Amino acid sequence: MLSDKLKQALIDQMNHEFAAAHEYLAMASYCENQSYDGFANFYKQQAKEERFHGTKIYNYLNDRGVHAKFQAIPEPKNDYESLLDTFRHGLEQEKTVTRNFYEISDIATEDREHMTLSFVRWFLDEQVEEESMFETHLDYIGRLKDDGNALYVYEQELAKRHFNVPEE
Q1: What's the rounded Cα separation, in Å, for the pair 73 and 70?
Q2: pLDDT tens digits for 109-166?
Q3: Is 46 annotated as belonging to a binding site?
Q4: Is 67 among the domain residues?
Q5: What is the pLDDT of residues 48-96, one digit of tens each?
Q6: Is 126 assigned to a binding site?
Q7: Residue 168, annotated ligand binder?
């Protein structure tokens, strides 16, 4: 049985995942407004992935007999200084998610809640990929600086990104 503290941490993270999807859609909107359609696609796919993560937690909570309660989603940041700024913001968001899952893992460890530890391990492994991806994009975009041709080619690659919901 999940402790109240662990239940709440999981519910909070579920809601954070759905809020992150909202944030990524706001980044997509900024990119589209700036005619960066390929980068907008990248963020739309990120939003799909975050909704998948939120739904994964939702299902886990319900499987464990916990009422997965939804909270208000805060208004996302809608204005950015640059394309690079969207990726900086995305990396910070992913680092927050990593810290949240560390906290959930710590609570589960204290509670000796091994099923939740197993469940959370998937997310921790995912966060390695997420943070690395944003760091790589920051490096690439930083190197491109004002090279419009290189940015165009890079954007075309991101326009091909597609998130498929994994079979479980």
Answers
A1: 9
A2: 999 999 999 999 999 999 999 999 999 999 999 998 778 889 889 899 999 988 887 7
A3: no
A4: yes
A5: 999 999 999 999 999 999 999 999 999 999 999 999 999 999 999 999 9
A6: no
A7: no
> Distance (Å, rounded) from C-alpha 1 to C-alpha 160?
43
**Token output for 51:** 């909704």
167 is in an annotated binding site: no
Look up the CATH number of the domain holding residue 97: 1.20.1260.10
Q: Which of 16, 15, 2 is nearest to 110 (CA)?
A: 2
* Total number of domains constituting the chain: 1
Which residues span the domain enclosing 101?
Answer: 4-159
* Distinct helix (H) and strand (E) counts, the chain: 5, 0
167 is a domain residue: no
Residue 93: inside a domain: yes
Annotate 100-111 with DSSP letters as a single string: HHHHHHHHHHHT
Answer whether residue 125 is part of any domain. Answer: yes
Is there a contact between 93 and 137 (Cβ–Cβ < 8 Å)?
Answer: no
Tokens of 25: 């859609």
Distance CA 25, CA 18 (A): 11
Q: Is 127 annotated as a binding residue?
A: yes
